[in-house]
Structure formats: C-alpha cells, structure tokens
C-alpha cells in the first residue's frame, strides 16, 4: 500500500473545489475495497457522498471527513501550483493538504494497518465522506445521516479528521462546538429626495440605532466549557447608488455564535422582541447552521484520543469547543459522541496551505491507536 504521504499527494492533485469531488472518492474507494469495506455512493444534487462500512455489530465508530476544498485564492501568490502537491523543506504544499486531505489519508492508512492485524467481530468501523463540507452542507453529511437514521445505522462514536491542532500536532481536541445562527433582516423605509426628508423614511437612520442595540445585548453567561456568545454584523446593503436619494430599504445580515445555556429559539425570541420595539417595519428570516454540542471528557472516544496523543506526542491535549462549525454537528444531533482531531490549522483556507510531512504519519499512528482502543 502507498504511504500516507503518497495518498495525500494523490488526493491533493484532484482539484476538488467545493462541491466537486473530481476523483478523490474513487481513490479512497479503491483503498477501502481492498480492506473489505462495503461501499455505498450517494450522489445528491451534484454532491458526492461515500458511506463505507466493515463489520455489522455495535459499537460503530465512524471516521468522517470531506474531499472538497475552498478556492485557491490568488494563484500568483502560491509558491507552487496549489494542486501540484509539491514538497519543500519538510513541508507538503497544496490546497487541502491540511483541510482535510491529509487527515483523510491518515485515517485510511491507519485502518489499513489496524485491519491487517484485527478482525472486527464485536464492533464496526465506517467512513462517511462528502464533497459538501466547505459549501452549504445541505446535500452531504446531513443528507446521508438521514438515510442512515432510517436504517437504524447511527454510529456510537464519530471522529472527524478536521485540522484541530494549533501549534503542535495533537495539542487541541475539539470536543464540542458553539451553535451558529444567521439573521437576514430587511428594514423597510420610504424612498424620497434627500432635500425633503419629511416626505421619506430613512431605513439607514433606523438601522443605526437598532444595530447598536443588537451589538449591546448582554447575552446570558456561557457555560465555562464554551466561549461567550457573540454577535457579528457581516453585511449591510442599501441605496440606489445615487447620492440624492433616500433608500426604500436596508438589508443587513448578522451571525451569532452561541453557547449553552442559550439556544437558537431563545436568541431569536430575544432579538425579535428588541426589533418590535423599534419605530420601523421589518422582515426577518433565520437560518440555524447548527446547535451547540458537547462530548463529555469521560466518553470512551475522548479517553482514547487523549491516550493516543499522550502516548505518541508526549503531550497532554487541551479539550476545547472554540472555532467554527464542522460536520460533527450533524452527528451530534443523533446522540453520537463526536470529537475532532487532525493536522495543524495555521494555514487552512490561505494561499500556500501546507503541512509538516512528518505529521502525516504521526497522525496516522494516533488514529490507529484510537482504533485499537475502541474496537478491540
């Protein structure tokens, strides 16, 4: 079998900008088939999804990840072509090297070594891989889990190979995430000439006070295991482009990253109550990207990860819940214990994304240790 490095290189050379897979899952399926995994492919609205399982009994451990990557940005700023998978000074460069084709390769080679030594008689192992993690995340992991739920095939544990590490491989394990809620607000006014403001209603002026009040909401204090709840205004648009016209409406989008004990319904109610006190009419639409989740430290999954990292890296990982959303949130909705451990995330989504080549094999050994602890 190819090494973790060679497999990572092969995956990087597939220019799988979300939601395209462009051959990544074909490469993965070839490896998994040789190990004896049963393969199912789900093509949903242009998204490629892969479910592969070996074993029939519980507990079921799922290794989860994605083959899609974000766009490369300004290619002229890259030291090497972003899909060439070039090596230099102990580093492997390429879009997706850290996020998260290196993690996928490490998971696959860990399984190869594990299954060469073990037969699953009282447990099961599976992969759930999608090409829709960096995009809307509607037709990927979420959709496949709905299918698995109908088959009563929900996993016991889920290990997501997202790049969780910060400065040293294994220094951070994500054991939960804040929730994410986006509001799409339209403030309605009345268009008019700027010289006759008494004949118009300026939605921009209305917005100044209302948005200031939104930013000054004192949210309920977060659980000590989570960062504080935070609201950020991310987009404002108004006007016709003319400098002598009061606009008819203003559109503003804002996102709240929220922590327990808050939930999306509490936040929506609080913000809607504030807006109803304002002197303007409005329309408000919500989109909850994901609710909070947390896996207890005494979960067998977390214990196995802590043991594996401490044994391999001689360091004690920090368990945390900060950062953005991942597909782990979809597993958590079904009661699955979820954790994220992967490569260093310092260059993800940037030009010149890269990983330490030595970290690829180390991560594979960490994953192999987790398999040994949970499935034997």
From TrEMBL:
Transmembrane segments annotated in the record for this chain: none
SUPFAM superfamilies: Bacterial exopeptidase dimerisation domain, Zn-dependent exopeptidases
Residues that coordinate or bind Zn(2+) 1: 66, 99, 162
Secretion signal span: none
A GO BP annotation: lysine biosynthetic process via diaminopimelate
The keyword Cell membrane is annotated on this UniProt entry: no
Keywords (A to Z) from UniProt: Amino-acid biosynthesis, Cobalt, Diaminopimelate biosynthesis, Hydrolase, Lysine biosynthesis, Metal-binding, Zinc
The keyword Zinc appears for this protein: yes
Pathway(s) of this molecule: Amino-acid biosynthesis; L-lysine biosynthesis via DAP pathway; LL-2,6-diaminopimelate from (S)-tetrahydrodipicolinate (succinylase route): step 3/3
Reactions that this protein is recorded to catalyse: N-succinyl-(2S,6S)-2,6-diaminopimelate + H2O = (2S,6S)-2,6-diaminopimelate + succinate
Subunit organization: Homodimer.
PANTHER family noted in UniProt: ACETYLORNITHINE DEACETYLASE, N-ACETYL-L-CITRULLINE DEACETYLASE
Protein task: Catalyzes the hydrolysis of N-succinyl-L,L-diaminopimelic acid (SDAP), forming succinate and LL-2,6-diaminopimelate (DAP), an intermediate involved in the bacterial biosynthesis of lysine and meso-diaminopimelic acid, an essential component of bacterial cell walls.
HAMAP family reported in the protein's UniProt record: DapE
Membership in a protein family: Belongs to the peptidase M20A family. DapE subfamily.
Protein name: Succinyl-diaminopimelate desuccinylase
Organism of derivation: Candidatus Berkiella cookevillensis
Lineage per the UniProt record: Bacteria, Pseudomonadati, Pseudomonadota, Gammaproteobacteria, Candidatus Berkiellales
């Amino acid at each position: 079998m190819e090494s973790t490095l060679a497999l990572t290189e092969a995956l990087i050379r597939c220019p799988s900008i979300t939601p395209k897979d462009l051959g990544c899952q074909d490469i993965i399926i070839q490896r998994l088939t040789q190990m004896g995994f049963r393969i199912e492919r789900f093509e949903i609205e242009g998204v490629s999804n892969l479910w592969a399982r070996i074993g029939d009994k519980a507990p079921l451990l799922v290794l989860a990840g994605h083959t899609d990557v974000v766009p490369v940005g300004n290619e002229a700023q890259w030291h090497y072509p972003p899909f060439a998978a070039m090596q230099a000074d102990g580093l492997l460069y390429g879009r997706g090297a850290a996020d998260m084709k290196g993690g996928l390769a490490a998971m696959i080679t860990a399984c190869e070594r594990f299954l060469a030594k073990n037969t699953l008689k009282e447990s099961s192992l599976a992969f759930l891989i999608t090409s829709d993690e960096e995009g809307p995340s509607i037709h990927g992991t979420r959709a496949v889990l709905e299918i698995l739920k109908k088959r009563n095939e929900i996993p016991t544990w889920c290990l997501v190979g997202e790049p969780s590490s910060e400065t040293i491989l294994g220094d951070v394990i994500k054991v939960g995430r804040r929730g994410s809620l986006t509001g799409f607000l339209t403030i309605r006014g009345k268009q008019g000439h700027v010289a006759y403001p008494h004949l118009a209603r300026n939605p921009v002026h209305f917005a100044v006070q209302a948005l200031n009040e939104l930013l000054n909401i004192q949210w309920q204090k977060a659980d000590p295991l989570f960062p504080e709840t935070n609201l950020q205004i991310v987009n404002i648009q108004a006007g016709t482009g003319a400098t002598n016209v009061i606009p008819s409406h203003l559109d503003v989008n804002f996102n709240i990253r929220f922590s327990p004990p808050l939930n999306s319904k509490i936040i929506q109610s609080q913000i809607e109550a504030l807006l109803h006190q304002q002197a303007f009419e409005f329309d408000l639409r919500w989109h909850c990207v994901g609710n909070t989740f947390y896996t207890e430290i005494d979960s067998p999954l977390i214990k196995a990860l802590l043991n594996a990292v401490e044994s391999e890296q001689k360091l004690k990982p920090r368990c945390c819940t900060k950062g953005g959303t991942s597909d782990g949130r979809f597993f958590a909705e079904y009661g699955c214990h979820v954790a994220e451990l992967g490569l260093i995330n310092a260059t993800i989504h940037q030009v010149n994304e890269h990983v330490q080549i030595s970290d690829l094999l180390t991560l594979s050994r960490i994953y192999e240790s987790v398999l040994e602890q949970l499935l034997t």
